[in-house]
Amino acid sequence: MADAVCTAFPGKTPPRTWSRALLLTLPIALWSLFMSLRGLLQHDRSLRTASGLTAALMVVLFYMMMKTSSTYRWRRWFFVALGVLFPIGFIHNVMVLRGSMGIPIEEMIAGRTPFCFLPIPLLILPAALTKTLVFPGSLLPGGGMSGAGMAAMAGLWLAITLVVGKGWCSYACFFGGIEEGMAALPKKAQWKKLDPRLRLVPWAVLLAMVLLSLALFEPAYCLWLCPFKAVSEYVAARNTVGLVQNGIFVVLFAALVIVLPLLTKKRTQCTFLCPFGAFQSIFNKTSVFDIKIDRTVCSPCVLCQKSCPTMSLTDDSIKKGETLMSCMKCGACVDACPKGAAVWHIRGTQVAVKPERARLMFLYAAWAMAAMFGGSIITQGLATILQRVI
Amino acid sequence: MKWPTWKLGYTAAGMTVLAAMLVPFLLMGLFTKGFTKLGLHVDEMYSGGPTVRTIQEDGYTIEVHKAVYPHLLQTEKPFVQLDWKPVNALPQHVSDAVDVDGDGQPDVRVSFDVPKDPKTPLRADVDALNPRYQAMRNVGKRKFSELIVRVDDAILVRVPLTGR
Amino acid sequence: MGGPFLLGEAFLLGLASGPACVASCGPVVVPSLLAEGAGWRLNARYLSSFLGTRFLGYLLFAAIAWELGALVSPPPAVRTLMYGGIHVLLGVALLWYAWSIGRGCAHACAGSGLVNIGRVGKHGVSGAAVLGFLTGVSLCPPFVAAGLRAAQLGSIAAALLFFAVFFVATTLWFVPFVGMGCVRRNASVIFVARIAMVLVALYYLLAGIAMLAGRRIYG
Question: Which of A249, A284, A319 is where one domain is finished?
Fold first, then answer.
């Protein structure tokens, strides 16, 4: 049956034999093992076990992607694990170091506020104009929670972005997995009609936050809007306005990360708020890999549009045979398309000619990044849990 | 002779996969060094500005930082940060007249108690001996430009400038 | 009075303060300019209206403050109230502007082609003019710096002239914004601009209310 479908729809790759899938998984297995080596050689049993489990997870999921020729549901397991385990590891560290998720002013003065990638677009203009980083962190590795320092995080971000473009949002972001997990829970969406203009709100948030950050010389999004402070840390409120700021992020987290994904089966925080996501969309213009719609095969049944977690396919874009620049390269549309019209693609090549080759090349690059970056975070989270158990 | 676009595409894709392998071994380090070489620094509203002078007291030092001025629409006042260190060498009650601007005349008198428990909140009084500096009473850590906090082995006091 | 030297000083102070002016006016100017129609002529008209009323605001404030002897440093409580009040007005004006863009007659009503947010008699009042005036009377740091200097001059005429030259120099930094006329305006761009205006407005409203209530943003 599968072969019949694939003959009729060349864009649809048939499932592979287990031996062929294993062969294709081998490079990733070696890579994952290498990435986990440091953890596997630790004296700490929980860290050793966590490293081994993480490597196994990444290899098994990649094997399943090769075996079944579908991407989205296996990638989602990794991404949800990342989204759930990051807060576990992070909050544990924060509680051990300072006993509270609230960042006291002393830590900010000492330059020990951990730096995440979300404020990167806000820091660019002040840094370009005055060589000042408007974030209370440290440029170089510092003590406590500052981790590797802002330069290292920025370097990591740039390196991964050059490889996967906006695929960052599907393979590296350690926040998106929570809402992706929420969106996966219900069988059907309760709210199906969403105003497509809401997709543009992240651009407005990006514009407003960049301008306010330059005017106020502070990371405006982090202070006022970021919902993920609920699962990481926040500025300890010293006054009424601080309490209002903290109230805002609690409401946004509850609404956009928990409730709306349950109701809509979409990644609503990413689609309707995240300014970093809008910023990363720019890198889709430079990325070699993208997803195309083969209009000679497309019905259109718009199953791709319905399956897209970020509303990156519209009637117009399907007619043009492409996704919008907000596409996160998660593969949901490719897997959902019954005729193989939605295909992975390499710029400059013909659409739907050897799409599986494009998929493989993209996945090798993206999964390598996932294993390197996300894998280390998953290991930390697992080790935190195992420390309680072992 | 022009290369067909598909060859260029596959070449770029191959290079992307290669770049992915190089990220942890080369690219990340390269970009990190690149960022550090840009000469960026953390906003002095957070870091307190560079140290310009050190005053030797009896068993401890007071580091005087360069005055920090707010940018654009920042709501903070301009301030100067003074660091007392090391904390374990400080007396139970500190009351020092500090020459901030280095003209030989004391500009502020800063008084605070040094509690044994490092988690006890600190409170400071500042008397302005020079009208350029703002007096403060019982200040805690209300804002970046007016505070007393303990950071590692130092007690930091930030005294706002009046703008006169 | 030191004529040319004084004017030169005002000009240089304005040039040096220009980036600060642009950055502090940016959250207001950029989204509202994007929400206007495309074309460098229309954008130039917007900027003329914005800067013209900003200039009026500068001069008006300078004249009143001079008369009250408060140009050097208004009492902190007065300054906080003024700053807070202007923030609230700016927030309201931005919200009104964002709402007006959606109205059918917004462009047609204003003879200038700019978005209209009110009427004075027979004439429409463009949003650019209102925003320009409000940013002109807000006590931004470059304005305060100019005020400190102008207060040392012998007469109100000298002070106003100082402010005028200072203003012209800061205005030069706004000229590149005319280039935003080249950005294609479609429904998506205008929608983004409107939402950005709403977000900026909410910030100004919150900041203004916090100041009026006596609580600073950060303690």
Answer: A284
Amino acid at A120: I
The verdict on A56 touching C (C-beta cutoff 8 Å) is no
In terms of CA atoms, which chain B residue is nearest residue A369? B20
Residue B30 structural domain: 1-40
Counting as contact any 3 or more CB pairs under 8 A, the partners of B are A, C
Looking at beta carbons, which residues of chain A come within 8 Å of B143? 238
Closest residue on chain C to B164 (Cα): C73
Identify the domain containing residue A209 by its residue range. 104-284
Q: What pLDDT, in 10s, does the model give residues C114-153? A: 777 766 666 677 788 899 999 888 877 777 777 777 777 7
d(CA B41, CA B39): 7
User: At residue B72, does pLDDT exceed 80?
Assistant: no
**Which positions in chain A touch C191 (Cβ < 8 Å)?**
197, 200, 204
Both B156 and B89 in one domain: the answer is yes
At A234, list the tokens: 């926040």
**Backbone torsions φ then ψ of A322, nearest 5 degrees:** -145, 170
Tell whether the model's pLDDT for residue A5 goes beyond 60. Answer: no
Residue C215 has pLDDT above 80, yes or no: no
DSSP lists the bridge partners of residue C10 as none
- Closest-CA distance, B11 to chain A, in angstroms, reads 10
B24-58, pLDDT tens digit by residue?
888 888 898 898 889 899 999 999 999 999 999 99
B51 and B116 in a single domain? The answer is yes
Distance CA A252, CA A221 (A): 12
A109 closest CB neighbour out of B29, B31, B151: B151
How many CB pairs lie under 8 A apart between chains A and B? Answer: 158
Give the 3-state secondary structure of A27-74: HHHHHHHHHHHHHHCCCCHHHHHHHHHHHHHHHHHHHHHHHHCCCHHH
Domain spans of chain C? 3-212
Of B40, B141, B149, nearest to A131 by CB-CB distance is: B40
* Chain B residues lying within 8 Å of C29, measured CB to CB: none
pLDDT in tens, A157-210: 999 999 999 999 999 999 999 999 999 999 999 998 899 999 999 999 999 999
Is residue A309 located within the same domain as residue A234? no
The residue of chain B nearest to residue A32, with distances taken between CA atoms, is B21
**Residues β-bridged to residue B113:** B93
Of B9, B27, B72, nearest to A348 by CB-CB distance is B9
Is A295 found in the same domain as A276?
Answer: no
Q: If contacts are CB pairs under 8 Å, which of residues 16-55 in chain A contact chain B? A: 31, 35
pLDDT tens by residue, A30-42: 999 999 998 888 8
Query: ipTM for the complex?
Result: 0.90
Residue C143's closest chain B neighbor by CA?
A: B72
- CATH number of the domain to which A344 belongs: 3.30.70.20
A14, part of any domain: no
Say whether C30 and A215 touch across the interface (CB within 8 A).
no
- Verify that A292 and A280 share a domain, yes or no: no
Minimum distance, in Å, between the CA of residue B164 and any CA atom of chain A: 24
Q: Cα–chain-centroid distance for residue B68?
A: 10
| One domain, residues B98 and B129 | yes
Q: What is the pTM of this model?
A: 0.92
Nearest Cα residue in chain B from C17: B72
Asked if residue A222 and residue A156 are part of one domain, the reply reads: yes
**Contact flag C24-B142 (C-beta cutoff 8 Å):** no
With a CB cutoff of 8 Å and minimum separation 6, the contacts of A170 are A75, A79, A176, A328, A329, A330, A366
Shared-domain flag, residues A109 and A229: yes
Contact B144, A105 (CB under 8 A): yes
> How are beta strands A102-103 and A234-235 bridged, if at all?
parallel
Q: Would the CB atoms of C191 and A240 count as touching at under 8 Å?
A: no
